[in-house]
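ok so for the tutorial part 2 we go from a plain amino acid sequence to predicted C-alpha cells. step 1 is just haveing the sequence, like this:
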Amino acid sequence: MCGLMQIEMSGDTDDDVRSVLSDMWRFAQHYQIGYGTHEEASVWYIMDELGSRVRHSDDPSFVFVPFYYMDRGLSYSVGWPLHDMAPEEEVTRDYLPNVKGRQRDTHTYAWFGERNVEEDDLVAAYNKHARTLSNAAAEPSEALLAALKRAEETKGRPSVPSPKRVLKVYTDMPTIAQAITTDISYASADTPSPSSSSSSTSSSTTPSRPSQDTPYVLVDSLALADVFWPHAQLSASDFSSLPSHAMVSQFKGEKALVLKDLLLDTITATYGSPRWLPESFNMETHLAELLGCVLSLDRKDADHTFILKPWNLARGIGHVITSSPACMIRIMETGPRVACKYLTRPALFDGVKYDLRYMVSVKSYAPLEIYVHKTFLLRFANKKFSMDELFDYEKHMTVMTFTPHHLKEVTHTQFKQDFTGGPEAWAKVEREIHDVIAKTFIAASLQGCALDQGTSRALYGVDILLDADMAPSLLEVNFNPNCVRLLQYEPQFFVQVFDLLFNSAPDEYD
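step 2 — the prediction. this is what the C-alpha cells look like for a chain of 510 residues:
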C-alpha cells in the first residue's frame, strides 16, 4: 500500500500504518449496500495500482463505477470511455462527479491541498463566520430576552391539574400500548400493529378495556381516538387530515429540533455560538468554514478533532471521528452531515465516557410549556477513554443498546449517590443541564416549532455530555425516543407522560 501511494517506508510498521491511514483518502472510493433504509452500509475501497493511477480531470475521458457481483460476493471497478479516444490520449476521471457549483473547488482540497484553494482563504472564511456568530450572541433579540425572562419567572411552576378523564388512544407502538394499559387487543408480538397512516372511519370498533390503574383505552381506528401517538414522523398532509378532536404526539415544526442541521440553525440563529453548543458546522453549506477552523486550530497546535454526524440518523449510526480535512471532505459522499468539535476532555465514570438522556415533555411552544422528567438515562462507553483509536466504537461511543456490545447499567439514583460531592453537588450540575434544555426549547419556540400547534404535544429525548469541569453541552434532540430501558426503571413512565400531556397532572409526578 505504501508503494501504491508512493509513501517512503520508514521501517517502523506503526509509523507506516499511520502514513497510509492519513493518505488513503486521496485514493479511497466508496459505495453503499442496503435496501433504501438508514441501515445502509458504506463500503470504502482502494483500486489497484492501475485504477489508482488514473488522474483527475474536470473534463474526464472515462468514468469508473463499482460493480458488485452477487453470485461471487465480489466487487469490481468497471470503466468505459465517455467519447472516442484518440491515440495516446490520457485516461482520466472526475474525482467529484456529484459535486457542482462553488463547493467543488473546496472539495478538491482532499486531493490537491492548496493547488486549487488557498488555505488562508479558508481561514478567512472561518474567521468571518465566527465573527457573525459572535455578533449574534452579543445582540440578543427582544423576543429572546422576553422568552428568557418568562422562563425564569415560570420555572418550577406546575400547571393547574384537571380531573382525569378516560381517553381513547390510537398508536402503532407496542411499547406505549403495553405501558399505558394492561389489556391490549392488537399490540403484541404475535399480531400486527395498526398502520400509522390509517384513516379508517369505522364506528363499530370496540376499544380494549382499560386497566384498573390508568384511564386510557386502546382503539384500532384513528377516527375514534382522543390521542394519536404514531411511530413515524407525520408529513404536512398527514397533519391536515387528522381528526379535529384528536391530540397528536408531534408538532408540525419540530424538525427545527430533531434534525441535526436544523437544530444547529435553530440554536445559532437565536444565540450565535453559546458555550453549551460545541462549535459546529453544516458541512453542506459551511464546508470552507469548517476546513478554515481545522486549519486555524492546527496552526495553533490545538486539537482539531471533529465528530461528523448524519443529519437524520440516531443511535450513533454513521458517526465518524476524525481530525483529517481529507476524511471530512470524503465522508460527505455518504450523505449530508454536521461536524461538531469533539470533546477531548469529557467527564468520566470509572474511566469511561458517558452521556445523559433526559426526557422532555412539551405541552405548548406558544406560550412555551415544557417539563423535564427527573428520571434520566445514563449511557456508557465500554473502554477506558483516551484520544486515540478514534475508530474504536466502544471507546468513543455510548449507545450500546442496539449493538452486540456490553451494556453497562447504572440507575440515575445510583449515579447521584456516586457522583463526586454527592447529591448536592449533582443538583448544581443538573440545574445547569436544565438551563441548557430550557434555552434549547426557547430557541425552538422562536424559530418555528410553534407552527400550527393546535392539539399537538410531544416527548423528546435530549442528549447531554458533560466535560471534565462538569459543564454541560447539548448533543442532540431525539424524536420519539426509545424508552424500553427507562420503563425497566419506571414502569409507570408513559402513564405519567400521558397524564402530563393529555390529562394535565404535572404536580403529581416526577
